[in-house]
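User: quick one, sequence for these tokens?
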């Protein structure tokens, strides 16, 4: 079968999106006619379109459009392949080499900002600060971190073991060069990383998500920081966009004294409450947020603020919803918001418009300095 031009797929997707959106609006009034209309459109495409089409892409486009029509960014459809990746992500695992990167404009390359201990990158002696110039013969100087990760994972689909390996050409800021050969592996990524800020007794904790094992990771991180003399903590939930109510509750329980934390409420009005026990962390703390902080992380910031701890950064996303996953018969899945988070006063945290920081701080786009972290240091110090 010949490849269909991109513009044709775009037109088809638009048609399916319109039909699916209309279907959602009509479904409660007349489910039979909605189903008929969907089948009619498929039959028209099957019998009339000038090229023969496979049904799977059309079904995926329709399913994605139906969920997207809800207007909730946290609800979406996943193909079978996307769902497999999602399950790894939610368990804090991924296929890769164990690095995080960011683009440094002054050098014109992606720079390594984190290396997972024991990962292929760590074993190949890739260091923080290394610049990534090429992967095999592919110039990646203009790649985003996401594009680089996608390129590296693509080698894992090779048929032979030898073809799974690739060579990364590294540079450093002093002009040094090196090449390393490695391949992607399944890696567990700690959801919390931490360190003592230089020349202080302030512990910094980056909480990447509130997914599987995040509460245990946070507990271990706090214990490790206290063991080396930390006397105060900065809890960073910037860009934290996912999490589970149970993990969130456990994390808050170890930080706050006994009391009400938050509630979940479904469409029927049924509520589930979460509370903390009497044992908690007795250290000064501040919380860092930004405009991308949402879901469980947004609730985390709201509860900490209500408990009297200062919030630093920008107003959060006002999307305090909790999702469930519904797996479909073909292995694809729908992630859909089922609950809204409520504060102890039973007010919707989304309706409250997000968390307004006590200390507003904006990042400077062309600067390497973390202005918000500096503000947090001043606040907790």
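Assistant:
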């Amino acid at each position: 079968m010949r490849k269909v031009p991109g513009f044709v797929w775009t037109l088809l997707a638009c048609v399916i999106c319109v039909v699916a959106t209309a279907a959602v609006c009509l479904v409660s009034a007349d489910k039979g006619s909605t189903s008929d209309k969907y089948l009619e459109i498929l039959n028209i495409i099957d019998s009339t379109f000038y090229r023969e089409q496979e049904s799977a892409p059309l079904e995926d486009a329709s399913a994605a459009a139906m969920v997207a029509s809800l207007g909730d960014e946290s609800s979406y459809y996943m193909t079978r392949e996307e769902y497999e990746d999602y399950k790894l992500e939610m368990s804090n695992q991924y296929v890769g080499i164990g690095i995080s990167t960011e683009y440094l404009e002054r050098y014109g390359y992606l720079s390594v900002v984190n290396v997972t201990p024991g990962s292929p990158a760590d074993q190949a002696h890739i260091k923080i600060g290394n610049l990534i110039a090429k992967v095999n013969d592919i110039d990646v100087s203009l790649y985003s971190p996401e594009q680089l990760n996608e390129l590296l994972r693509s080698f894992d689909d090779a048929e032979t073991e030898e073809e799974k390996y690739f060579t990364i050409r590294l540079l450093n800021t002093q002009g040094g060069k090196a090449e390393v050969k490695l391949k992607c592996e399944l890696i567990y990524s700690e959801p919390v990383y931490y360190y003592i800020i230089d020349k202080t007794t302030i512990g910094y904790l980056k909480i990447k998500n509130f997914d599987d094992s995040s509460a245990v990771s946070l507990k271990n991180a706090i214990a490790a920081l206290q063991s080396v003399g930390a006397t105060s903590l900065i809890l960073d939930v910037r860009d934290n966009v996912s999490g589970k109510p149970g993990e969130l509750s456990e994390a808050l329980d170890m930080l706050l004294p006994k009391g009400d934390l938050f509630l979940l409420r479904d469409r029927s009005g049924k509520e589930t409450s979460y509370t903390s026990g009497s044992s908690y962390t007795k250290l000064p703390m501040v919380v860092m947020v930004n405009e991308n902080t949402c879901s469980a992380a947004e609730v985390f910031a709201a509860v900490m603020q209500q408990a009297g701890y200062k919030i630093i950064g920008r107003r959060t996303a006002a999307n305090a919803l909790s999702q469930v996953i519904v797996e479909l018969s073909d292995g694809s899945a729908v992630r859909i918001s089922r609950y809204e988070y409520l504060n102890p006063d039973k007010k919707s945290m989304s309706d409250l418009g997000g968390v307004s920081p006590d200390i507003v701080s904006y990042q400077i786009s062309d600067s390497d300095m973390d202005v918000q972290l500096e503000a947090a240091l001043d606040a907790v110090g």
